[in-house]
Design a protein that fits this description.
By secondary structure, the chain is an alpha+beta fold. Helix content is 33%, strand content 20%. The protein folds into 4 domains: 88 residues, Uridine Diphospho-n-acetylenolpyruvylglucosamine Reductase, domain 2, CATH 3.30.43; 137 residues, Uridine Diphospho-n-acetylenolpyruvylglucosamine Reductase, domain 3 (2-Layer Sandwich); 92 residues, 2-Layer Sandwich (Alpha-Beta Plaits), CATH 3.30.70.3450; 89 residues, Alpha-Beta Plaits (2-Layer Sandwich). Helix 12 packs antiparallel against helix 13. It is globular. The two termini are 32 Å apart.
């Protein structure tokens, strides 16, 4: 760690004074870690890695960056990073590592709300919630070092579609330092005293994401890749921990065989977790499987579980399918964590359920034509927004030790991505090369976003070069 004395300029010394002696690093190995990730983003070495420990330091850091025109790249999850959003797009950027901000500020069982700082990971929050009889809707197999706040801000799909009332769910209210350097609260947090403690004393619980007044400023932060501001805390909607639960599976040789079953299950809101995976992603002998989590909570839990299982079984039978209990190896997909796996390029987008099979066929056909074995591609389909839309994800693995295999996977990733966008797939989280393809097709949205950016970040210091900025 540098000391204030051995930094080159007065501006650098001012930054070190803001963060403290252990809050700023020029370690070459650490800088190199942030200069690239597993995506196709070009290598750009950052200037420093800043590690604030509290919201006041974040606010002072943003004010310093605004005065010195220094780009900031916010990061709160541990590596490996995959999508290029944490790699600087311009030289001399400062990585703002928020992982030291690990406060679980409040767990409110009555309102089923947790308030956490951005450094809190799934592996840290889930046991704390369970101790209070709560859980949260989580993404599929998050990394143990994945920031809960970052995951929700980037709208990673959660696995319980009936609880996904909008795409940012279960994210509710945020405390954010905008690119102007101003600290503000979104939602109901912006309608009262500007401190969490004062709001709790007044009976507010940071439940409603809408506000102040008719605005919904939280949505400016989701999917923004840190280009608007830095979130220093967020409230998350939780649910009661199930008293009883069962893991179920429905399998079929083709994706099309499962579409009607999934449509009806989503419409009737049967079960909790609901997800579709192919054999390459899930393993096993059957080409496609639907994993379903059924549960009962406080009131008549066993009766609720039995009724759900009965209804799911009847629905499966109507569709010519069979409902079975999932074995232990499948059960880990509901509450496990991601383990180290071979590198891959991931393509993901939103579409309607009826369109999903066509996109899957298109990508597998492109793989075969390119000389990449289609059976290697893992497919994951996650209903969102109570089944209104589907997150469709392709995982294209490659062996980094084999140059031809790595080059083939990258070429397929780029060609398939561009083809899918042209076919109408909705890339709602446009990382890396997707951004140009997405925003070049929508001049109006690009113009509006740039206007908002000038308001929230007038000096363009927040992760410049991402999205359409």
């Amino acid at each position: 760690m540098p000391t204030i004395q051995n930094l080159a300029t007065d501006q650098d010394k001012e930054l070190a004074a803001i963060l403290g002696d252990d809050g700023l690093s020029t370690d070459s190995a650490l800088l190199e870690e942030y200069a690239r990730d597993l995506s196709t983003a070009p290598r750009i070495l950052p200037r420093y890695v800043a590690r604030p420990g509290k919201a006041a330091q974040v606010q002072r850091l943003v004010a310093w960056a605004k005065e010195t025109a220094t780009p900031l790249v916010p990061v709160s999850s541990g590596g490996p990073h995959r999508y290029g959003d944490t790699v600087p797009s311009v030289a001399e950027a400062v990585i703002v590592d928020l992982s030291r901000m690990k406060g679980i500020l409040r767990i409110d069982r009555r309102n089923r709300i947790a308030v956490v700082e951005p450094g809190v990971t799934y592996a840290e929050l889930e046991p704390a919630l369970a101790a209070d009889g709560l859980r949260m809707s989580r993404p599929l197999l998050p990394r143990r070092n994945k920031s809960v706040v970052a995951s929700l801000l980037e709208r990673q799909p959660t696995t319980i579609p009936r609880l996904n009332y909008s795409l940012p769910e279960p994210l509710r209210v945020c405390g954010v330092v905008w690119g102007t350097g101003d600290l503000a609260f979104t939602g109901e947090g912006g309608t009262a005293a500007a401190s969490l403690e004062a709001q709790w004393e007044a009976g507010l619980a940071q439940v409603n994401p809408q506000g102040p007044l008719a605005t919904d400023l939280m949505r400016l932060l989701t999917g923004a890749q840190g280009t608007m501001g830095m979130v220093v805390w967020a409230s998350i909607k939780c649910q009661l921990l199930p008293a009883v639960q069962k893991r179920l599976v429905v399998s079929a040789p083709a994706l099309g065989d499962l579409i009607e079953f999934c449509r009806q299950a989503e419409r009737l809101k049967l079960g909790d977790e609901l997800m579709m995976l192919n054999r390459a992603r899930l393993g096993g002998a059957v080409e496609w499987s639907v994993l379903i989590g059924a549960a009962g909570t406080a009131l008549f839990p066993r009766e609720k579980l039995e009724l759900q299982e009965k209804e799911l079984g009847a629905l499966a039978s109507q569709c010519g399918l069979a409902l079975e209990e999932a074995g232990a190896e499948l059960g880990s997909w509901f509450d496990g964590y991601a383990e180290d796996a071979e590198p891959s390029h991931d393509i993901f987008f939103l579409c309607t359920l009826d369109a999903a099979p066509g996109y899957v066929e298109s990508v597998l056909a492109m793989a075969g034509k390119a000389g990449y074995a289609p059976e290697r591609i893992g497919v994951y389909i996650q209903p969102q927004h109570q089944g209104v839309s589907q997150h469709v994800e392709f995982r294209i693995p490659y062996n980094p030790a084999e140059r031809k295999d790595a080059a083939l996977a990258e070429r397929l990733f780029l060609e398939a991505s561009e083809a899918l966008i042209s076919q109408g797939a909705y890339f709602s989280r446009p990382y890396g090369p997707w951004a140009d393809w997405v925003y070049s097709r929508d001049a109006t949205a690009s113009r509006v976003l740039r206007t908002v950016k000038r308001i929230a970040d007038p000096c363009n210091i927040m992760n410049p070069g991402k999205l359409c900025f």
